[in-house]
Design brief:
Blueprint: E1 2-6, H1 20-25, E2 29-32, H2 47-60, E3 66-70, H3 74-83, E4 90-94, E5 111-112, E6 115-116, H4 134-143, E7 147-148, H5 149-152, E8 168-172, H6 177-185, E9 198-202, H7 209-212, H8 214-226
Parallel strand pairs: 1-2, 1-3, 3-4, 4-8, 8-9
Antiparallel strand pairs: 5-6, 6-7
Keywords: Hydrolase
Protein name: Alpha/beta hydrolase
Organism: Streptomyces kunmingensis
């Protein structure tokens, strides 16, 4: 199966470099996406531009792909299911929930000169970054791509209720499945609470398992693709 991989904020397609060969070895066709404005130098890119890239990849897949969204890109994966509910086989969300209709995509940190810079590690101390050593942190920070303002502040628009029929796998890295269930039940994600097919998978890692647990993550995604 084609597995489309969408990394979160400040990351381009190379974030999946350690996951791609593992998925290929398991018999799948992984496609790591580099989004407009996050790796291609298009600082004026919008959320709609990024979604168009994801939807184009869904349309280009020979069959129904598994669409994987990490962190904030959980919203992009879900937007793809909304845009192509008949074409997406399943959505896997790693360490994130989709934003609700009408909300900003990822307006989390200050925007300066039209971009949202990586804010450093202070906001992520604790479970998020516990398994990243200093070398990994330095490498991440050096490679971080500023997120265009029109992406971070782009408004999420969800229109097709057939998205609720697309199966969803919530991969739980820095939090547990029990916590995820509790948050969703409490209203953290109004959309996931309405998903017809929702499952949870635990992964003992921090927020960036593609860097710290690539083999384990690949096996989880491969199982999601075939189950």
């Amino acid at each position: 199966m084609d597995i489309l991989l969408i990394a979160g904020l400040w990351l381009d397609g190379t974030a999946w470099d350690d996951v791609v060969p593992e998925l290929a070895a398991l018999g799948h066709h992984p496609v790591a996406l580099t989004l407009p404005g996050q790796g291609d130098g298009a600082a004026s890119a919008t959320l709609d531009d990024q979604l168009a890239t994801v939807v184009a990849a869904v349309d280009a897949a020979p069959g129904k792909p598994l669409v994987v969204g990490h962190s904030a890109a959980a919203t992009l994966a879900w937007l793809a299911a909304d845009a192509r509910p008949e074409k997406v086989a399943k959505v896997a969300l790693i360490g994130g929930f989709p934003a609700a209709d009408g909300c900003a995509y990822a307006d989390y940190f200050a925007v300066e000169d039209g971009v949202m810079l990586f804010p450093g590690w202070s906001p992520f101390e604790g479970a998020d970054a516990a398994d990243l050593d200093q070398q990994a942190r330095d490498r991440f920070a050096a490679a971080a791509v500023p997120v265009p303002e029109a992406v971070a502040k782009g408004v999420v628009r969800l229109t097709d209720e057939h998205r609720f029929d697309v199966p969803v796998v919530v991969v739980c890295p820095e939090f547990t499945p029990a916590q995820a269930k509790e948050w969703i039940a409490a209203g953290e994600s109004s959309d996931l609470s309405r998903a017809a097919h929702l499952e949870y998978v635990d992964l003992d890692s921090g927020h960036w398992p593609m860097a710290t647990r690539p083999r384990e993550l690949a096996h989880i995604l491969a199982k999601a693709a075939t189950s």
